[in-house]
Amino acid sequence: MIKIRTYLLWIALTALHTYLFYHHDVGVNALLFSILTVGVTTWYHKLGSEKLWWMAASGHLISALAVSLHSYFSSAATYNLSFYVLAGYVISMRSSLPVAFINGMYRSIFYSFFITIYSAFLDLLDVITHSNKSYFSLRKTTLYIAPISVTAIFYVLYGTVNPDFFLSINFPEWQFNYELIFYTLFGSAIICPLFFPGPTGRLAEWDLTNPDLLKRMEGKKSGRRFTTMGLFYENRQGVIMFIMLNTLIAIFLAFSILQIFFPSLNHHPAGHSDQVHQGFEVLVLSIIIAILLIMYYFRKNENFYDKKVKLVKLATIWIILNGILILFTCYKNVLYIDAFGLTYKRIWVFIGMMLTGIGLYLTIIKIYKVRTNWYLLRQNAWVLYFTVASFGVVDWDRLITWYNPNYAEFLDVKYILNLGNTQIPYMSELLDANDPRIIPFKTDIERKMVNQRLPADWQSQTADTQWMLREYKK
Length: 474
Fold this sequence. Notes:
Largest sheet: none
Helix content: over 70%
Number of domains: 3
Low-confidence stretches: 132-138, 220-226
Radius of gyration: 31 Å
Distance between the termini: 57 Å
Strand content: under 5%
Structural class: mainly alpha
Number of strands: 0
Shape: flat
Mean pLDDT: 81
Number of helices: 18
């Protein structure tokens, strides 16, 4: 009975997925479907007390909220991919986020769907051939095949004698909609692991063998690299390296700050744009390398070496100096925005700095609370997951269109016109106000207004489309 209920839930959610999404853009349909899916899955597998499940479900619901508000392409992609995270945590509730995502995608595309269909076929065959109580048993079915077939043959013979005896039935013309069939199969494949997760798998089992808390390795397990003499030389090497790195970054920070107060030190022709973007890319790369170095010098038994205090202090200073460098890069990005306004690249500079700052904070936790490198990767994966899921909650197009004309010293109208459709009402207001910066682009703005098409079906509606309808009525 439980298995029949499982099949019915799977089929029902698949049918709902097809109804809500087939030939519709993502919008409010995504939020409705996700709330129902998370609720049914939580109830069916009794996951109400599972912390990691709720973290995965929260990220998925945030991405669903994002597409119901604004429906960016990137948000829609995040929303679809987060389904695999849900599947991964149904398969193995203790998995790391990257492992759950890989496991969920593998099961959805290559494993669970085909195995489930095959098992359902075997179950149906077993019912037909072996169940004595079933009304669909093979023996009872044969009782009616022969009489029905013979009766049909005689009906054709009598109809040949008297054509008026034939019933005139007009069957409607119907053709296979292969696109609909394939889309339904796609939906069923995504939903299948939520109800038929199957075995945990080797990848998830390997993941469970990597704990967050680091333990001292004793005896032969520690290996030759972690003998007392080996720890001494590796610790000394780390001390020397971090002394040199700290000196270099301190000199770099001092010189960069002096350039603000003494413009004569700026000999490079690069402007704000190159300095900010190149500086951001190099800074992120340098911090990633710094974290990898710390992961190397604070791995396994290195964390239990009794003379590691100096290395810990130097690594902490290095992290703090990198944090100051993050703040300095944000300051330069603010100057750039004041001059030229917001763009997606400049927004991502702030988000990237936030992510790297959190990465440095987690690295400090790893050092002082003696956590494994795998712990650092797990935590950073969750931070990235929630950041990407939440990015689409804000209507960045509307924010950029509002901010730049009001606060930027130089307005790049062409950039704004290349944004999404939510910039049209703001640009129309500026055009009605005869803003001299907008008038040369009057034709382009009017063309975008004429070509604007808002979705008519309720499934594809978003908060943006409703807001734009109200603005157009004004």
